[in-house]
Amino acid sequence: MSLQPWERQAQKGRDILQNSVPKQWLLPEDKLPPASQKDVTDVPVQCGLLSEHEVAITNLSATQLVAEMGQGKLSAEEVVIAFLKRSVLGHQLLNFATEFLADEAISRAKELDDYYKKTGKLVGPLHGVPISVKEHVAIKNKTCNTGYVAWVDQVASEDAYLLQLLHKAGAVFHVRTNQPQSLMHLCCENNITGKTLNPFNRTLTPGGSSGGEGAAAGFRCSPLGIGTDIGGSIRAPAAFCGGYGFKPTALRNPMAGCRVACLGQETILGVIGPLGSSSLDDLELFQRAVLDQEPWETDTSLVPLPWKRVTPTRDITIAIMWDDGCVRPHPPVTRALRLAKEKLSAAGITVVDWEPYKHQYGWDILSKLYYPDGASLQRKMLQESGEPALPLSEWAFSYGPKTPLTHPEAWVLQFQRTMYRAEYHGLIKSRGVDFIISPAYPGVAAVYGESHYWHYTAIWNLLDLPAVIFPSGLHVDPKLDALNGEDESYKPRNEIDEREWKKYQSPERYEGAPIGLQIAGRHFKDEETLAAAKIVEDIMKEGAPVSGH
């Protein structure tokens, strides 16, 4: 059967990927685990592709790697080779990459090593740290398709500004990562690269739209990665794959050079930020490396706000949002929230319950503001190549109005957005709450094709609040997470709640999935929010496990 024109075009993107794979590091097919094996996180240790030393390197955080290189204990070259080998293996198992940058990365690492040998100094705070890059973040002289077949031939003329800053700080870019068609899925599939899988359970999605980054973090293919987020696209992948993720307040990190179909659409601002495999310290390291360079002096759209050094304090009030008033979280997520409350309360943190404020109303505003043109630009991109819209693309497009909004209609929605933000911020302040811990999603990582409910992450985009994902330390447990008691008799309150609740047929469906939690802070309190996340995570790691968790 002859290929459709769009299929031939998509093949070009697959060829770029295949031609970039360092073949010398491919694990032979007969040594790969069977496709039926769900959890592949132990494969790097077991398969023999990486030496014990290389496994140890890839288990270090970015902060630790910089310290080791600063003491001359590790070279940048051996670090990047270790992460490249783990990335090649990860791609064989998870299909997370869109292009390997092996030659460029090794050459860059050698330059850094030469600099260190000559000066005894590091180039910058990210000296030699391998960083993976979401594909739609432009790299000079590389194609940038943003998950659209129509853009497979489009070549970037310069690096995204954030990459320029990270390069100056010493970073090494070693692999580019997958994203969904249209960038608007909490899933990771397109007609070029295909599906990316979750390293903890390959029947589940790694999240999206930074799903390749989520998989890379979960499999430790990179200590740090770059994602973007307009509805949860950093945070869902981090939560689904057991990693860390940070959504800053808008206009702190530079977005220039991120390719999207709807340039100039500012009804809801997207952000760019880090995902990490190992620690919250690495997310702060990333932010310091960027903002200490004062990027607002070049990109005047940014707020001229330096990154503050904040001392974590336990003298805070944390609210827990058990439910957003629209959709009830699944039992594993509620179990993690209960553990958080018990541990934080026992540690002397003031913990209160958060009563959500008009979240459905907020979603009604937000969903229209995502697509004020009725998703016509996105549909045009698909029509340009003739590629079919994937089911979750159609699902996302349906959020918007059926016809483009008129200017007055858009103005009304933007006014409602601004007033809702003011009301919500006022409530946070009047209730004396510093931070809110909430689910990142109704459940853990979704089964492919079922990641429909964005509201637990998207609400913080609408409100423009900083938010952090961190692992609770828990995974789905068939005994602890079985439906019983109140959950067994629960009657959903609306159609959406019923749809989401029915997905939790049994904990076995989500076997091995990590349980991430989300903490949001006040507007522009990014540093304080990261500091609070560190406190919460440290407390949750303290002492013996609490009974029933």
UniProtKB/TrEMBL annotation:
GO terms for molecular function: hydrolase activity. The active site is at residues 134, 209, 233. Substrate binds at residues 183, 209, 230-233. SUPFAM superfamilies: Amidase signature (AS) enzymes. Residues 78-530 form the Amidase domain. The keyword Hydrolase applies. Keywords: Hydrolase. Gene3D superfamilies: Amidase signature (AS) domain. It comes from the Eukaryota. Pfam families: Amidase (PF01425). PANTHER family: AMIDASE C550.07-RELATED (PTHR46072:SF4), AMIDASE-RELATED-RELATED (PTHR46072). Belongs to the amidase family. This is Amidase domain-containing protein. It comes from Penicillium chermesinum.
